[in-house]
Amino acid sequence: MGIVVQKYGGSSVADATSVKRVAQRIVATKKAGHDVVVVVSAMGDTTDELIDLANEVSPLPPARELDMLLTAGERISMAVLAMAIGNLGQEARSFTGSQAGVITDAEHGKAKIIDVTPGRIEKAIAEGAIAIVAGFQGVSQTTKDITTLGRGGSDTTAVALAAALHADVCEIYSDVDGIFTADPRIVPDARQIPQISYEETLEMAANGAKILHLRCVEYARRNDMPIHVRSSFSDKPGTWVLKAEDVTKDPTMEQAIISGVAHDRSEAKITVVGVPDQVGYAAAILKALGDAQINIDMIVQNVSAAATALTDISFTLPRADGQTAMTALARLKDQVGFERLQYDDSVGKVSIIGAGMRSAPGITARFFQALADANVNIAMISTSEIRISVVVAESQVENAVRAAHSAFDLGTDEVEAVVYGGTGR
Amino acid sequence: MGIVVQKYGGSSVADATSVKRVAQRIVATKKAGHDVVVVVSAMGDTTDELIDLANEVSPLPPARELDMLLTAGERISMAVLAMAIGNLGQEARSFTGSQAGVITDAEHGKAKIIDVTPGRIEKAIAEGAIAIVAGFQGVSQTTKDITTLGRGGSDTTAVALAAALHADVCEIYSDVDGIFTADPRIVPDARQIPQISYEETLEMAANGAKILHLRCVEYARRNDMPIHVRSSFSDKPGTWVLKAEDVTKDPTMEQAIISGVAHDRSEAKITVVGVPDQVGYAAAILKALGDAQINIDMIVQNVSAAATALTDISFTLPRADGQTAMTALARLKDQVGFERLQYDDSVGKVSIIGAGMRSAPGITARFFQALADANVNIAMISTSEIRISVVVAESQVENAVRAAHSAFDLGTDEVEAVVYGGTGR
């Protein structure tokens, strides 16, 4: 049998007991005849504790040194996990990102993987050992300094290693059973999705679903690496993320037009009121935001009232960037001559996602009718080929998710008792 | 000015406050015009905490993985120290043992340094940065695995780097002001030694003085690297460890025959009673101990009583090895035909050390008379060219140290309020 790459997040290795449980699962996979490569995050709160320590000595720690510090977290967890596996009678060898051949650019704190040269990993598994690799870290191709990959880095490490090793599958373990049709904390009859395409998963991740990070799914899609999202606390099959043509149509659902409903409460909305409707003014606004390193999400420009020749431009952005954006825009007031700025951080985004909507007419109407029936007012709309998103009042997010989930018959009869949590890094 | 290598032990970087204090000292050295390379141990109790964690998952952790785990300790302290220095406006770059070019053999947990290739350190200081290097660790030449150097490893890293960089001096910082003529906790008028030879320091270290480790002094002697032993809590000059011919004779002492009195309470004594006085029996006993990896220190064989043709063989060894040694010897009982074994772990060793004794007659008599006057009974004696050691009852160790210190006029008039502590690793 082939190579299986397994990734365990921080909550799966939070303490010695959890580490031992994970070790048993890894050994079981090895005994089933697979070559096993494991990518592991830092134990529990280690990363936060290390950041606290850094802040005790410096208000703005140099990025190179912060990476050196934080990578100690995975070093600890991988060594301890290797020991726990050794204690079960299987040889395990731990490797840093650098030793595992995870080559990155030199952007400390948010490095990108340039190449993976896993010679030492291949040697270890050829010799019968289980290889344990530190997630979230690599080594800069140019400076030879240690780097960290930023958010989603451990998942991305796992997928990148799986691709470089031509593994059969990359299993991503967390404390959740898989990907659901909606957040089960909001929709009690949400159903676990057995298989889903990369494209749909990307739209889910980009629109607030917290199971997999965008980067990791992108990497898997580019390399056609199957991901199996599973819980480290159970043996249930999870959710397979696959090429669209490999996804088996669910026989219990005649027309799986919509795969799931995602929501996101991390955005805010800014409206620039009274912009002169002239060429170049919208561009100036967007340039100012770009220069301030702010990624905007949706953007809507109203039709101008002919009498005034003034228009409003609204957009959404991460709430964390709200203040920076408002400051950057305020500086433009005289140049652009707009009337005023409005800032609203009590908004939420609800999205329906499904590859089936490409060929099914009337989806938008059905979605909007469901929202209307639930008395949810729509503030902004944006669509892609396989997604429709609306911005609503934050207080209406849960209503909107339930209405959409029900309108597209996504529910199951069994209500699962699961907690829909976030992944670490 | 040239390169200064500074080594700070775990007690000097126990918490954020200590790290900031050490950072100021380092920056002051840099501002005085030196190129500065710093070797640092793990913060405070970090190493013990990591060992506890390892023991939670495995009673006998694999040595390779234990090294991977423990090296996280220095990784944390060096990164945090680099941040604290950066906060004072100086650039500092941290380097793992591997990055600093500390090449070792593959003996995990007690690796020996084979070579030091500090190209990245030289580049960093050439570019004006302060280099911070993780002590106690290296990388195996053959396996490319991370190794630790065992006891005294951080001091040895510092001396080895200083030698490879052709530094002017290797400064070893701890919580003690320097090397003293005796332990000031036992001898209140013990005097700090301004300068002392490598050979005397080696004898002090080998006979219970806890300031410097044997390995580090050996390395310095072989490479003629001056060591300056200092406190990180004060600016006082410490003790210089130098080539014998470079040691300035203390003008206040007419004849510095004896440099210091060392004592050691870590040994036990085993006596094999009633060994047939025949060729090969003593050798068989020593071989059995060697096979059990036990280093014996002193050894004494009584003259046999002609009537019985039986003799007694006594030796001292580390108390920690007592049980192993007794087990190994008991197995020999029938083969050698000795009468019985005696084990005594309430013994201590007191040594006077001084290069001057080479040319001064009567030193042994003066030492033994002082012990007799203090009612100290001598159980065993051993000597080298520059040392005389006696084994006494543990309860008599302090008496014996004071008697010897006084007999050779080692005291000072000022009583220093210092704590004579041990170095970490």
UniProtKB/TrEMBL annotation, chains A, B:
This is Aspartokinase. GO terms for cellular component: cytosol. Coiled coil: none annotated. Catalyzes the phosphorylation of the beta-carboxyl group of aspartic acid with ATP to yield 4-phospho-L-aspartate, which is involved in the branched biosynthetic pathway leading to the biosynthesis of amino acids lysine, threonine, isoleucine and methionine. Keywords: Amino-acid biosynthesis, ATP-binding, Diaminopimelate biosynthesis, Kinase, Lysine biosynthesis, Nucleotide-binding, Transferase. InterPro entries: AceGlu_kinase-like_sf, ACT-like_dom_sf, ACT_Aspartokinase, ACT_dom, AKii-LysC-BS, Asp/Glu/Uridylate_kinase, Asp_kin_monofn, Asp_kinase. It catalyses: L-aspartate + ATP = 4-phospho-L-aspartate + ADP. Substrate binds at T47, E74. Transmembrane segments: none annotated. Residues 270-355 form the ACT domain. The keyword Kinase applies. It is an enzyme of class 2 (transferase). PANTHER family: ASPARTATE KINASE, ASPARTOKINASE. It comes from the Bacteria.
